[in-house]
Amino acid sequence: MAARGSCRDFSDAPVSSEILETLCAVALSAPTKSDLQQRDIILLHDPAKRTRLAELVGGQAWVAQAPMLAVFCGNNRRQRLLHEAANVPFANDHLDAFFNAACDAAIALGAFTAAADAFGVGTCPISAVRNEARAVADLLDLPDHVFPFAGLAIGYPAHAPQIAKRLPLGVTVHTDHYNEANLHEDVAAYDADRAANQPYGNQRFPEIFGKSDPYTWSEDKVRQYSQPERANFGAYIRSIGFKLD
To answer: Which residues contact 187 (CB under 8 A, 6 or more apart)?
Structure first.
């Protein structure tokens, strides 16, 4: 599992319906908050819908070329419908309702990618479905209280995906209490190692920041979040009925 990498270059070989069904079953067997099961998977078999989804996530060519695309959704609607049927008030109409559904979708996504690796199937999550959440929801006919959490490109890798180096455990694993005493030193060492062994092919926003040498992971992330991303997502979530108090 530690050897997995995101796959953005797929062969033309299709992933069978039987394997896709098994992967969905494994993903939806993953842990879920209080057994509420507030996550769904939409598989896009329609080529026109796959093409449209690729356009909505920024026209990334590798997305359009994936043999299969899926969208993982948070689903708090089903719970509310059960309350309506039972004529029992839904008493948790606040931030946690959205948060639980989002977490359930994230857990299912992780389980799907792990199961796909076991089948030799490559995957790459696509958070950019939230860039145009309303348009993605319209494409998939999502009702209120169901929202796109992430897309997933699925297919057999054309070549072995690269394993991305991660931050050292000294930064991300803590004992007894949160500790960031050596954060900047540890990140600097990680930056140097990654720049030497896994350099970025492109630099973000050179028209604003110029070109850096070396160009490091931390600089890339600072540049990324120096510009607004999906600032309207909260408004979309409220528009489909969630209260985020």
So the answer is: 167, 171, 217, 218
Q: What is the pLDDT of residue 59?
A: 76
Residue type, 175: T
Query: Which of 232, 233, 215 has its CA nearest to residue 224?
Result: 215
CA of 215: how far to CAs of 4, 123, 195, 212, 223, in Å?
24, 27, 7, 5, 11
Give the dihedral sign, CA 153/165/193/207: positive
Span 5-36, pLDDT tens digits:
999 999 999 999 999 999 999 999 999 999 99
Secondary structure element (H or E) that encloses residue 58, with its range: none
By C-alpha distance, which of 22, 54, 8 is closest to 157? 8
* pTM above threshold 0.90: yes
